[in-house]
Amino acid sequence: MVRCYMQSSSSLVNEVVVSLSTKCRLVFAVAVAVLLAACGSDQAASPAESTQVDLSKVTLRVGYSTNSGKGPQAVREQSGAFEGTPYKIEWVAFTLGDLGLQSVNSGATDLQLQLQLTNAVIAQGNAKVPWTADDAPFSVIGAAQYLTKNGIEIVVHDGSGINSVADLKGKKVAFSKGSSSNYYWLLSEQAAGLSPGDVEVAQLSVSDSRAAFAAGDVDALVAFDYNLATLIRAGGAKVLASSGDSLPMYQLLAARRGLLDDPATRAAVADFYRRLAVRDVRYASHIDAVRAIYETLDKTDPLDSAVVAEGARQQQVPLDDALVKAVQDEADVFFAAGVIDTKVDVRILFDKTLAADVPASP
Fold first, then answer.
1. Which of 87, 124, 125, 199 could make an SS bond with 55 (beta carbons 3.0 to 4.6 A apart)?
2. Do β-strands 59-65 and 88-94 pair in parallel, antiparallel, or remain unpaired?
């Protein structure tokens, strides 16, 4: 049973994605089973068999971010991956991921999807009192990797004479404060031998950054490739650098403190995590339907929807040492740059125990 705190999607979108829940079930099951095996889940076949607890009294309050539009949540719900749950789901929308994390920290919601690494790092690094493993207000219980082709890009005006990051000395660069783009810029700045004072920074939202770039108010813009598709296609902008495969991009699944202590809730969360993986596979198998959703709900130009849809693909990944190191590297860079106040050990945020409870896909 699912309840959602948002407006329902249009009938057109429902017609577009009706095939999502009926096609390719064997492919979905195989792919999800392989993924969960990598996460260490090769045991139970269903929540009921693995836990023998009553899930009907469990309600998961799940936060998600709308800063990328309405499309991602519509795809998530209409994929069919969350139909027929033996527990209730209440979807709660937040305009930004950090607001969703604040809700988790306060106990108002149970889970937060789409949490950028930077949101977790900044929350820990700017806490008034340093957190420990025993009192951290949230834990990271799952993660997904973006499958975007180019990752984060730095774009400049075509014909500007700027041909390298080093050429941005004395120029104005826009990106979202405390975001993955902020992190990539700091890495690029350092690699180019630039000091923080060499470049004027405009910390703007993605939409405001694009508007500022289009108006000529900034010399460069840093953002995910799918957020720059329309700008680049329109002409007048060129890609100066991109993170590509050199900097894997992740988003996290955060849980409020103590959420997994109750056996029934833990079983429900494990099943929910399995369904996230199902959603990922169905998304990849129905890109054309996903494009139609973005075009309908977010008014994405049909000429750009393929790039946007492909760029937003993701897959669930295990909480392994490589992922933890990626988060720690980000925290260290942010501390050195003064984005966070305290040098932190991010390992205290990770709870890797859920994987053993995630049921195999039916």
1. 87
2. parallel
251 closest CA partner among 118, 352, 114, 112 = 114
Whether residue 362 lies inside any domain: the answer is no
Cα angle value 152/166/340 (rounded, 5°): 55
Segments forming the whole domain that contains residue 201: 152-246
Q: Where does a domain end: 202, 219, 246?
A: 246
Same structural domain, 15 and 98: yes
Show pLDDT as tens, one digit a residue, over the chain (362 residues).
444 443 333 333 333 333 333 333 333 333 333 333 333 333 333 444 444 789 999 999 999 998 888 999 999 999 999 999 999 999 999 988 889 999 999 999 999 998 999 999 999 999 999 999 999 999 999 999 988 888 999 999 999 999 999 999 999 999 998 899 999 999 999 999 999 899 999 999 888 999 999 999 999 999 998 889 888 888 889 999 999 878 888 999 999 999 999 999 999 999 999 999 999 999 999 999 999 999 999 999 999 999 889 988 999 999 999 999 999 999 999 999 999 999 999 999 999 999 888 876 54
Amino acid at 205: S
